[in-house]
Amino acid sequence: MPNEYRVGLVDADEGIRAGRRMVLESSGRVNITLELATANELLERFADYLLDVLIIDQRLRGLSGVQVCEKISAIKFAEKIDTRILLTAPYGSAELELQALRAGATAVVSQESGSAALVDTVVSLGARKRHYSIAEIRTLFGGEVTKTKRDHALESHLAEFELRERSILQSMVSGASVTEAANAFEVASYRVRKLVQSTLTSLELVTLEQLQLRYLAAGLADDL
Fold first, then answer.
1. CATH 1.10.10.10 in the chain, residues?
2. pLDDT higher than 60, residue 154
3. DSSP code of 175?
4. CATH 3.40.50.2300 in the chain, residues?
5. CATH number attached to the domain at 144-217
6. Which residues, in sequence order, are CB contacts of 218 under 8 Å at separation 6+?
């Protein structure tokens, strides 16, 4: 029987929330366990809920969805919470998508993409599948990718690893799954997860997407 994922839904529009709840729960893979209208309610209650995926709409009152992602990411880092964040928006925008990933979102879905895309993305994130390859994030980066600068914190952290460990991490940054990286380097999956988590913690990041952006900004992803 397929897994059912615990999902939080945050949207200021009651009608949109109702529609998304119906679409997501009718998939048979999603259980909406938290439904809120405002950012303040979310920030007060987020740490008390065990969620696989949190859906945040960009059009919240008081704070934008991206700003809420930043605040939730800080809570995730402090409390070691592994909830995936999905930002929804009325239309697709590479600029907004890049801002959301920097803020700690794991994916962005626009309303124009349709209900099937929303369900597929939520289920994929719930299953901890990778959403972006380095090539896809490089495309979002656009012209900014050429404006590289040294990232001393990242370089210092990588210098602590042996060549094999750096290669494993690079494979994850390129878009490989934990299983794919473990098989390619013939190591246990838990070692791959531990390597990634130690890197994220050291750099005060909460997602691999944020690490991919750091690699790109520092010019360390040219061969990926």
1. 144-217
2. yes
3. T
4. 5-129
5. 1.10.10.10
6. 148, 149, 150, 151, 154, 155
Cα(148)–Cα(151) distance, integer angstroms:
9
For the chain, what percentages of helix, strand and coil (3-state, to nearest 5) are there? 55, 10, 30
pTM: 0.91
Helices and strands, counts by H and E, the chain: 11, 5
The token pair that represents 20 in the structure block: 């998304």
Confidence of residue 146 (pLDDT cuts 50, 70, 90): very low
Domain 5-129 has CATH 3.30.460.80: no
- Whether the per-residue pLDDT at 48 is higher than 80: the answer is yes
- pLDDT tens track for 29-41: 999 999 999 999 8
